[in-house]
Write a structure and sequence with these properties.
It is a single chain. The protein is mainly beta and about 55 residues long. Helices cover about 0% and strands about 50% of the residues. Strand 2 and strand 3 form a beta hairpin.
Length: about 55
């Protein structure tokens, strides 16, 4: 089971580009915004666990 944290690098329409905090050299992950919390902004941190993204304060 994958558990990791991401930073929202950019938002492009219906998609967001995420960077893993533990593997910053990896390519950005493209995720549909429908799978992410509604109130994300560029630069916010997300926690991924159990196929769900949550905002980290």
């Amino acid at each position: 089971m994958l558990i990791c944290d991401y930073i929202v690098k950019s938002i492009d329409g219906d998609y967001a580009h995420l960077r893993r905090t533990d593997l910053p050299e990896e390519e950005l992950k493209l995720v549909a915004r429908a799978l992410l919390p509604f109130d994300i902004t560029e630069g916010c941190r997300l926690h991924y666990e159990m196929m769900q993204y949550t905002i980290v304060d």
